Amino acid sequence: xxxxxxxxKRFGYRWVLRNLDLDVAPGEIVALLGPNGAGKTTLLRILAxxxxxxxxxxxxxxxxxxxxARSARAQLGFVAHQPMLYADxxxxxxxxxxxxxxxxxxxxxxxxxxTVGLAGLDRQPVxxxxxxxxxxxxxxxxLLHRPRVLLLDEAHSSLDQEAAARLDGxxxxxxxxxxxxxxxxxxxxxxxxxxxxxxxxxxGHIAAEIPRADFTDDLAGRYQAAVEAARA
Amino acid sequence: MPSYWSAVRAVLWKDLAxxxxxxxxxxxxLAFAVLVILIFNFSLxxxxxxxxxxxxxxxxxxxxxxxxxxxNRSFVLExxxxxxxxxxxxxxxxxxxxxxxxxxxxxxxxxxxxFTLPLYALLYNVNVFIPGPLLVTGLGMLGxxxxxxxxxxxASAARTRDLLLxxxxxPLVIPVLITAVRASSGFLSGLEMQYIWPSLxxxxxxxxxxxxxxxxxxxxxxxx
Amino acid sequence: xxxxPMQAEKPRLLRVLExxxxxxxxxxxxxxxxxxxxxxxxxxxxxxxxxHVASGWLGMMAFIIAAVAGIAYLxxxxxRWDVLAVACVEIGIIYAFINTAxxxxxxxxxxxxxxxxxPRLVTSTIMILVYIAYLMLRQGLEDxxxxxxxxxxxxxxxxxxxxxxxxxxxxxxxxHPVVIGSGSPTxxxxxxxxxxxxxxxxxxxxxxxxxxxTLIWQRxxxxxxxxxxxxxxxxxxx
Lengths: 232, 224, 238
Fold this sequence. Notes:
Chain A has helices at residues 40-47, 69-73, 91-101, 107-115, 131-143, 161-176, 188-194, 219-231, and strands spanning 2-11, 14-24, 29-33, 55-60, 63-65, 76-79, 149-153, 180-185, 197-202, 205-211. Chain A is an alpha/beta fold. The longest helix of chain A is centred in the last third of the chain and has 16 residues, at 161-176.
């Protein structure tokens, strides 16, 4: 579903990513871990066709980027750092608008408001929402068109316990349906619980991949060792 | 995937819905336009004859100045909370986003005209409700928002966005301002069409060229 | 762009151009002040004409190259085109300004005013404003790649509006009362060029072409070295 070969990205004079390889198969949840500034967000933005790769091959949902970006976009969902919502519009109007951009009718909107637990608040403007509620709506927005590839950038960060657990369940469900999920995170415990594999991104490339079989008690130590090794 | 036109309509509908909910922009533009008209009136000390000759100039200066408020807001609200990324994630042509925003901006300016023209007709004692000046108003505003929407998209990405837009926009819309003023004052003073056509032609050419250019380059403005 | 040890060294062609420019500037000055005859009607002030037109030509040339470099950048995504575009815009602004100022000096005795709303005058002034706006736009942007992209788009849009600006002002002017001069500045204060004047004029054009290429090249090299420094700084930070 996601296949990245030799990806490099330059911002101005800095190479943020270099020679990066990564695969995510359908039904797989891959956790992307790495220190701040390692390039996690940049990688996700490239996979979401929001940024163009400087070098390398990137394919998402069978579409080559950036050339076939439009067909990739139709099949990918992205939950970013920012909510990507209109603060003045109500929750339902936000979703209705994005549904129209994906060529969907309104029925899906109510279904998703239900899913993320905002059904009673659909008429409230997003401005009045807490950060966590905005995040939930943002997740609903990303799932409107039943994406086959889901990209999440620290999606759990502002959610409360209950909502975070709900998201965990949702992701497991989506993966079971065959969705490929790439989850950028700082939370090693959550990653080890959800993911079938952990990809360690340091210094602009994937320094190590830890399969589920190797999720031992000392996962934190292994992760740290991978980061250190890449730095050395 | 949605059709091109339905994506344009969705973006237009969204901008109108945002304005309907927040009700910030139109009120500000209107109040600003009235202030500009009043300031011109006092600063120019107009007598009856002078009014007729400078009327069109005052009108278009008002539109140009008040218009920047709307154009600025148009993309500032897209940058807020990363909403623009949300738009760009959708499987629609980027130019559909551009034309949706353009239509919304045009509509705001036309609404502004609907409110200011009567006031202006009253204060300056000229009847602008004849087909000629109205046509010129529409054509001029189209050219203005075509350039303005494109430049506002760029200005909104800069640190100095609010300050930057007038600097970027005004030198490039001078053809619109000059020809619109000339054509409408031509209509108002009852000139024959042969004297008005040259202005109209340049105005129409500007609209077409600017729409085509913006259509071609908007992708470059929103890519990363 | 990788580190290139040769980059710090001045290309030989550029050295040649520098000398060519200096020599031809001296010759052009001689031609302007001594070789070309004193114009019968306007007198000495007419001598402004040679450098006035030549600097206008240099400014135009620079702006046109800037627009072409912008298009090249958008299709190739090579930062060198952007460096060239900025070099051209900066040099272009300076010479467009010299053009306007020297025109003004000439207009005072010829038209009896420093300024008139002539289409060429207004258009060239607006063009200076457009390119000042271009520099301001770039200044507000952090990301060099975005700066290059927006700069290219803006100069492209500017390039399509400038001719329309000229036409619209011409329409506006022709229907306006004519105070001084008619549609074109040569109408009043116009003169027939003698063959000596023509020689001085053509040589001034040639000189300013050399001057323009030299200056743009120098500014381009400065821009490249600047980029190199930025790059090294980024590497050190990594």
